[in-house]
Task: structure prediction
Amino acid sequence: MILFLVSSIVYLFLGGIPNFTELQAQLISTFTAVVPIILLFTFFDSRKGSPGKRKLNLKIIFNHHSYLNYLLRNIMKFLPWQIAHIGIIRGMYTDFDLLSQCFTYGSLILLVVMLYMGLITHNKRHLADYIVGSRVIQTHNH
Result:
């Protein structure tokens, strides 16, 4: 509903759908989708966890506790999503040239690696956890 309203306002005030360069489309995607989600999860994680983590009694702990570590962890966590955006948007402008396909498939490979690490490793840590020195633990608050 919100997307429809925003799109309608843009369409009415700009007299149609504006044409964007690839760079403009990349920036719009980054700053309207990826950055807000990273900041939102960073905020939640730094304040006793996201709603899902709190509901499941999970907590993130770090070797070196800092807000920057929460931010870096979430940047890494959402990196496959951003890389996929880059590939798809580039592909729309280049008929999905080799580079756009590399970004898109690279994002999928990174996603699979991160999921595999989280599911299979003995301590359930994924790539971002290893990079920033964090781990998610179960708390016993009910």
Summary: Residues 21-138 form one domain.
